[in-house]
Amino acid sequence: MKETAPHFKQEEYIQSLATQIEQLRGRELPGFMSSQAFYMCMSQYVELWENPMLALLKDVETVATEVSVNLASVLLSQYPALNDAIRTVTQSVLREFSEGAVAKLHEQITREKDPFTLNDFLQQWVNKLRFDRFSKAVEESFEHTKNPSSNWNGLKEEVYANMRQWYRSTHAISAMASAQEMSAIMEAYWNLSAKRFVDNCCMIADKDVLNKIPEAIQDSMYQFIKDDTKLQVRLKF
């Protein structure tokens, strides 16, 4: 999931976001951010979660198959044909459950494409990002000063001038200023949404795949044993 995260703080990303804001501007009043840009970008980011989602289910399927087969080989080592049957049944059951889980996870992706939350974490995270951005601006202002620390008045005026310039560039009514503010909101919401999506994926995989395996394998093995044709094929080994 981390690999799909955009580089929210990079200058190239903010510049690209400013261009999108300009292109998607509707009837918003000057100084108001474009909701269309926010929704469109978040929808694109959420689409990138499909591959990690499928990788999770593949790992669950692989590990569950290995565990089931290894348990059968230890408990039923003297029945190789039965071990082979358990492997076949386990793979079939897991494939069926995984397909059902994929459908539910695609529903989760569809929901996440429509941004919404009442979680206080969003505002807290946005405020943290704003504070970090301000702290970075203060540090850079001191780093680029030309007056020595002994000239306190000159140093103070230079820092004030740098901070005024930073404030005008980040709070002015412009696409670039809106992009900087939106990048902080998008980063906070991306983190919140990604954590929520990961939790939902794990719960669906646990509930719809792992919890159903034992009973499903038992029922399938019973049906397998009742099938004389399949049983005779296995007994030839």
Would you give an account of this structure?
The chain has 237 residues and is an all-alpha fold. It has one domain (34-235). It has 9 helices and no strands. Helix 4 runs antiparallel to helix 7 (175-210). It is elongated and about 95 Å long. The two termini are 45 Å apart. The model has no long low-confidence stretch (mean pLDDT 88).
Mean pLDDT, all residues? 88
Counting structural domains, the number is 1
**Contiguous helical run count:** 9
* Distance N to C terminus: 45 Å
Strand content: under 5%
Shape: elongated
Alpha-beta classification: mainly alpha
Radius of gyration: 28 Å
H-E string:
HHHHHHHHH
Low-confidence segments: none
Biggest sheet overview: none
Total E-strand runs = 0
Quick tags:
237 residues, 0% strand, mainly alpha, 9 helices, single chain, 79% helix
What's the arrangement of secondary structure elements?
Elements: H1 11-24, H2 35-47, H3 50-75, H4 80-112, H5 121-143, H6 152-171, H7 175-210, H8 213-226, H9 228-235
Write a short abstract of this structure:
The chain contains 9 helices and no strands. It has 237 residues and is mostly helical.
